[in-house]
Design brief:
CATH class of one domain: Alpha Beta
Organism: Adineta ricciae
CATH superfamily of one domain: Vaccinia Virus protein VP39
Protein name: Methyltransferase FkbM domain-containing protein
Distance between the termini: 98 Å
InterPro entries: FkbM_mtfrase, SAM-dependent_MTase, SAM-dependent_MTases_sf
CATH topology of one domain: Rossmann fold
Helix content: 25-40%
Shape: elongated
Structural class: alpha/beta
Strand content: 15-25%
Order of helices and strands: HHEEEHHEHEHEEEEEHHEHHEEHE
CATH architecture of one domain: 3-Layer(aba) Sandwich
Largest sheet: 8 strands, mixed
Number of strands: 14
Keywords: Membrane, Transmembrane, Transmembrane helix
Number of helices: 11
Length: 353
């Protein structure tokens, strides 16, 4: 006779119940781990783009992790492969697209005084009339000025030593369908050292903190470039305190009066203050600038031309206030001060950034 064990189904039921209970607790623990990871990602993203408004922040966060077309997308801001963002630069015509990292957005500004200057010297009209008009940008970081010149129809040479920034600029060139013949990008540092010298960039003195880790790059002198045009319509230099090195690399270009317009950053407290103090006198005496103007970045006002007696005051003013400045120097022998719509330089005028 066969005996039936009535306790076996009960044991199986208890085992299943215990399994479900353990599974529930495992899922609960896993859920908290997942929520902690998501919260960490949220905090990191918020810190990276804390300068934007909350609606834009949530839209950027959603677009970054869900890049497909969605209801939050708009015409002026789209995303590419994370962490790059595409900005439509429509603050002035012509419009172009700029590829940046999400945390680079705060370094993109309209530069209204500079925009006014470009209107006064007729950059757009000149490039439309002659597509071989050459614009050179040294140390562009994101490349916005050179890309704008390319959108105007100019031929543009861009020199960016930082590999990560050069990669972003290259993405912008491709996105705007600019010909690589008309817009040429060089991952070189412009310096008065012999061309093809290997150096570390950034050098560590005066370079902005937004740059990535140092990289080994090659130098190039502007005098050694085989330029496609006899003259450079506009040379823009953003060398973070090493502007003098750039100018010395182009002694022949300046001596032959092949540079018509010059814009550069003025950082009187960076690197060697003696060199910075001598920068404006050097531009006036050695580069033979006919007129020197100050471009205030926070409005559309141009001040100048700076007289010889204004230069020392200008230096003292900006070093005491820790103010950077944008300087325009007219080098064209045909330059006329009436061409630039400027106000008289005010020694008590200060601008906060």
């Amino acid at each position: 006779m066969r005996t039936i064990n009535s306790t076996r189904p009960l044991c199986r039921w208890r085992q299943k119940r215990l399994h479900h209970i353990l599974a529930y607790f495992r899922w609960t623990k896993l859920r908290w781990v997942v929520l902690s990871i998501l919260l960490t990602i949220f905090i990191v993203q918020f810190i990276q783009i804390r300068s934007v408004t909350y609606p834009i922040f949530f839209r950027m966060l959603f677009n970054k992790y869900f890049p497909a077309n969605n209801e939050f997308s708009d015409e002026t801001e789209t995303t590419t492969v994370a962490p790059e963002v595409v900005l439509e630069m429509n603050d002035r015509a012509p419009v172009y697209k700029l590829v940046v990292r999400a945390d680079d957005r705060t370094y993109v500004d309209p530069d209204r005084a500079q925009a006014k200057l470009l209107e006064d010297i007729k950059l757009y009209d000149t490039c439309q009339h002659d597509p071989k008009t050459l614009v050179v940008h040294i140390g562009p970081y994101l490349g916005d000025f050179g890309l704008y010149a390319a959108a105007c129809g100019c031929m543009v040479f861009i020199f960016e030593p930082q590999p990560s920034s050069a990669a972003l600029i290259n993405s912008s060139i491709k996105l705007n369908d600019f010909s690589t013949y008309r817009v040429r990008l060089f991952n070189r540092v412009v310096n008065d050292l012999p061309s093809n010298t290997s150096v570390q960039y950034p050098p560590g003195d005066g370079s902005p903190s937004v740059l990535d880790d140092p990289a080994t790059v090659s130098t190039v002198q502007l005098d050694d470039i085989n330029w496609p045009s006899q003259s450079i319509f506009l040379l823009k230099v953003d060398a973070d305190g090493f502007e003098m090195n750039v100018f010395r690399s182009a002694k022949n270009l300046f001596a032959q009066k092949r540079v018509r317009h010059l814009i550069f950053k003025y950082h009187p407290w960076l690197i060697d203050r003696g060199t910075q103090k001598a920068l404006l006198p050097y531009v006036r005496s050695e580069l033979k600038a006919k007129f020197i103007y100050n471009l205030y970045r926070t409005d559309n006002t141009i001040y100048g031309p700076l007289r010889p007696r204004d230069i020392q005051t200008f230096y003292d003013q900006h070093i005491n206030q820790d103010l950077p400045a944008d300087i325009y120097a007219a080098l064209d022998s045909n330059a006329n001060r009436n061409t630039i719509k400027a106000q008289r330089y005010q020694t008590n005028k200060h601008v906060s950034f």
